[in-house]
User: Fold Helix-turn-helix domain-containing protein from Blastococcus brunescens.
Amino acid sequence: MRERARRLGADLDRPHTVVVARVEERCRARALAAATHLAATKGGLAGTHDGAVVLCLPDVDAGTAASAVRRELGSAGAGTVTVGGAGPARGPSAVAPAHAEAARCVATLVALGRSGEAASAEELGFFGLLVGDGRDVRGFVQATLAPVLEYDAKRGTDLAGTLQAFFDAGSSPARAAETLRLHVNTVTQRLDRVSRLLGKEWSSPERALEVQLALRLHRLTGTSAV
Assistant:
């Protein structure tokens, strides 16, 4: 593999970012042509695998590479392009694991309702592990937070933001109040309202983890109340 890459002008012993781009099937040939041109100008490699366009680009961080690929393929008329990047990968044996991570990153973006965007595995963090296999992210957010989201939407309040500040403050109403620049009694009243909406067990360790995850996914997806 190292020798085949060398013949194509690429040195796999340099650190490479692996980029996976999901495009519509009708646009795949155009996307591959644009990817091949980009790889040639950067001293990298391009091809297709499992219906996606894949690039190995040297000496560039994953987030920058993913954004550049999305921009280049989009400008070439490749339609909706969703891109994930991972790495750096150094040496032929590191390419496959980085490819798997980049592919999971793309699947995560799609699951989050963010088709047409680009991100690195580092930017998505552990959400790639949680939602990259086609899970119903929006359904989970709704099942966990719907009463709070509906209350906020109808009354113009921000119970969800108060909850996030509460968790960010280590579950301390006093510290959350400082962050929000509110009186601690106001925060306590809002949390009491949350208890009436979600049930008193929302702050138990198991439920609190679910609520925190749903809040983070809500921010990533922009999920609104139904």
Q: What stands out?
A: The beta strands are 16-22, 45-49, 52-58, 82-89, 118-120. The chain has a mean pLDDT of 89.
